[in-house]
Amino acid sequence: MIPVSLPGGNFYVLMAVSLACLSTLLTWLAVLATSRGARHWLGGHRRLGTILMTALALLGAIFPYQQLGQWLDAERDAQADAGRRSVLNQPTRVAGVDMPAGTVLRLATPGELSTFDRARFPEGQPGLIHGLESTGLYRYAATARQPETLSVEIARDQAQEGWLCAHGHRVEFVMLGGQPRFASCHLAIGNQLDRQPVPPGTWIQVDPAVRGQPIEQAGAGARWLLRTEGSEPMEVERLSLLKLELRLDARRQLLGFEGLLSRETALGDMTYPAGTRVLSGGLRAAGAQPGDLLFSASRGRVARRAGGTDVAAGSSVLQAPDGAVRAVLSNRDAGVLDVAAVRVGP
After folding, report:
1. What is the distance between the alpha carbons of residues 179 and 271, in angstroms, rounded to a whole number?
2. pLDDT of residue 299
3. What distance in Å separates the CA atoms of residue 202 and residue 244, rounded to the nearest whole number?
4. Which of 35, 86, 154, 212 is such that its CA lies 20 to 30 A from the CA of 201?
5. Which one of 55, 81, 107 terminates a domain?
6. Which of 116, 94, 115 is nearest to 106 (CA)?
7. β 163-165/158-160 pair status
8. CA–CA separation, 298 vs 193, rounded Å?
9. Is the dihedral of CA 11, 14, 20, 26 positive or negative?
10. Binning pLDDT at 50, 70 and 90, where does residue 214 land?
């Protein structure tokens, strides 16, 4: 949601009163111009008429004065924008980006192309950014917390590092060593992982620790982070999951995941309700082994155990991939935060 600042209620009341006074004054002047009786009355009540007309004029002037102020502000903004607007007469490389002739730049500092914060490429002549054909881009200056970034608009689905990015969402790049490096995008229809389709709209991000490195040199840590935010489930380790977060290595092998069961699921002696949180990879629970799964029922739900005691919310079940229950732990001991989840994402 875009925040909009609205004037206070008194502003609208004042504008309505001013407009009413202005209308009354103009009507009175029209009547005086066409009616001898009105002029005769005014001649006999000069003092009262002068006071009334002066009051109407003063109050009525507020509305046109306010409109004139807005127009002057708009003119100043338009002139300032015109001074910051530049059109390239020939293909030019600006701030690490190759731009065709006819590109329209909006400059932060008039006359300095390198300070552009927005570029719009001419129709039929896309700009090339890391091999990606784009119709325009936004540029954000570096801060103490993140490097300079480019937010690129594309007119059709295009591939980046083996992933098909969707148009309608911007593709993000970071500038490293003066060159744009792919950072993130939303995936289009047609991506697959382990021979199954990845839900469209999934957000994918390159691990900041390996940006700028060739894929084969990314090391054993996570290279890709995928987040599915829609209502379409995805199957991982034979589990149907929603709101899924996947961590993949450079070869797209699964390192770990976190998500919510999309339906009631049985594993070994345990049966979990839909909405149960599932974690795998990097578990902090005591006794956890590689490949183990950690299930945490949501508030108000319980996990049923065949021939045993149900596991209520507030506790987590550590299970081996074959279904063997290793332990039932409190969420604190399992390293699970028992609070409402808040996610900030794209």
Report:
1. 51
2. 83
3. 9
4. 212
5. 81
6. 116
7. antiparallel
8. 28
9. negative
10. low
Residue with tokens 């949601």: 1
Question: CA–CA separation, 196 vs 190, rounded Å?
Answer: 10
Write down the pLDDT at residue 2: 47
Tokens at 154, concatenated: 């594309």
Cα–Cα distance, 302 to 346 (Å, whole number) = 32
Which range of residues forms the domain containing residue 325?
A: 264-346
Give the pairing type, strands 171-176 and 179-186: antiparallel
In a domain, 272, yes or no: yes
Whether 117 is covered by a domain: the verdict is no
How many Å apart are CA 258 and CA 123, to the nearest integer?
43
pLDDT of residue 4: 47
Q: Is 88:102 a contact under the CB 8 Å cutoff? A: yes
Is 38 among the domain residues?
Answer: yes
Both tokens of 47, joined, read 């003092």
**Given a cut of 80, is residue 338 above it in pLDDT?**
no
Tokens, residue 222:
């996570």
The 10s digit of each residue's pLDDT in 18-37 is 888 888 888 988 888 888 88
What length does the chain have? Answer: 346
Residue-wise pLDDT tens digits, 101-152: 999 998 888 878 888 999 999 988 888 888 899 999 999 988 888 889 999 9
**What's the CA gap between 103 and 136, in Å, rounded?**
9
Cα–Cα distances (Å) from 260 to 140, 161, 272, 318, in that order, read 35, 28, 11, 16
The position carrying tokens 């989840």 is 341
pTM: 0.71
**Hey, how many other C-beta atoms are within 10 angstroms of the C-beta on 331?**
19
Token pair listed for 34: 């066409």
Contact in structure between 328 and 311 (CB atoms under 8 Å):
yes
User: Is the CA virtual torsion 203, 204, 208, 211 positive or negative?
Assistant: negative
Q: Is residue 36 part of a domain?
A: yes
Count structural domains, the chain. Answer: 2
